[in-house]
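Methods: example folding runs. The two proteins below were folded one after another, and each record is reproduced exactly as written to the output file, sequence line first and structure-token line second.
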Amino acid sequence: MNTALLQYGNETSNSSLRRVLRMSVNLAFRDSMRLRARSLDVSPNAMTMMSPLQIASGSICDIDFNVPLDGRFPLVRAVSKCTASICVGTQGFRTSLKFIEIDSSSMQILGDLMRYRF
């Protein structure tokens, strides 16, 4: 499990902070299709993951995933929207999700992950 803090550019907003996160992600789409993917990184408002199938841009899905914090693995749940899904050779599709609904408990967990020192 790799969890390093990344910062893109010179921005200091929460949207620029991302944590490398290699965990399983469960996706449930509104048409009852279910999918399991692998996260690449996460921020307080978005996630990038590798998916075995291409997800249409604009698709809405419920997601859940665990994050490592102090020897625990609390569950994060959110409703997300696919913003991009790009084929990466034989590895699958690099998919970007934006969280459009997230409860306060899950938001707190992500905030703790962003502040956590490894």
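Second run, written to the same file directly after the first:
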Amino acid sequence: MHTTDTIRRYKIFSEEDWKEIVFDEHALIEVYAKDMTFHCTEIVGSLLLRGEGCHFPELKHIKGNLSIDAPNCEIPLLETVEGHFKMHCYTQLDQLKKVSGHFKCIISCTFKNLEIIGGYVSVKNTKVYTKNGELLKTRVVIPVHYQFQADALLKDGIFDINILGSNIVIPHREIRGKINVVGANISFPNLEFVHGLLRIRCEYHAGHKFTHHFPELKKVIGNLKLENTGVLFPALQEASGSIHLENGCDVTFKALEKSGNITINGGSKAGFPVLTDINGSFQYNGSETCYLHALQRVKGVFNNYNTIASDIVEVGDLILHKNNSFEHLQKINGKIQVPYHAECTVNFKSLEYLGELDDGGLHGLGFPALKEINHYLYGTHYNFEHLANNVYFKINNNLYLTKDQVIISRMHFHFIFQEKRHP
């Protein structure tokens, strides 16, 4: 989470250094002194132990992070750590009951009274036991039923949450973890950035009538999945993972310019008025026409079922369903597919490059501007072998010839390039 507050670092080498500390949530206390005893019952701030043999005989509560990086330290009465916990050197913590943040331990040990861990657990190649048994590497999902539970979430936004209640406000500006929203009318008024899965679903029949608010969300690094719900994303400009809509969603991405895969199923519909780049595939199965007026490039498969993208210039593969206009399409890096039940007549006026061309039901397509084909199956009705970088001759269903190769394969022509070749 962004903040204007500055962390104040205190490096402790003596008792005099300790006396100069101003304890608050912005204090970062690094103890380098060796074999010293510090008398306090609570530390407001974060504590890093870098000096051997440090003793805190009365310390019970740390309202911040705790990192133990030096051997022979003692905190025998410590009960709670309100931030993250890291232990790289053994320290006996028999009274520790709660860690609100993430828990990381790289040595085998036992915490006899530890019951609560609020964040994820990292215990790689070690055996760590708590009151509830052995810890495994995992990330604890925090359930949120009520507003006070949302208010208690870690301020740094590093957590996985499952929002089960309704009419809840999540105040964070950044969240780095998984967000699962089940309740109705959830608001994220300050959220600008998500690094992780964002899933919103409603188990009620009228879920699409609920509205979840993300007025400031600009970027999602991860997948976005919506089911039977309504959502407002007025500022979202980039979603690097996939966007998946199911079961009657109706969403307009007013500012979205770049995304990963987009899949729209189950009676859902979506608007993408300024979307220019899809770094993946596009699949739409709705009954209403989907207009992508600004779309320029699709890296993966572009399925044009009930979809209009009249200004598109480049795709990976193209699946045709009807006679759409592709007046500006210049480059198809893969292949063109026409389903067996479809009859298409399309004139690709501007297409200059085609990755693969065979005789797979492409009658009715025109290529007046075509200049280059990477892989061409000889014998098609187009007679474009003079434009091809690689010409293939089909002997039978299992045998292809080129000028310098014999290819034995049971795969279709479009898949033989992906198989491992042997000299």
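Comment on the second run: The first strand starts at residue 8 and ends at 12.
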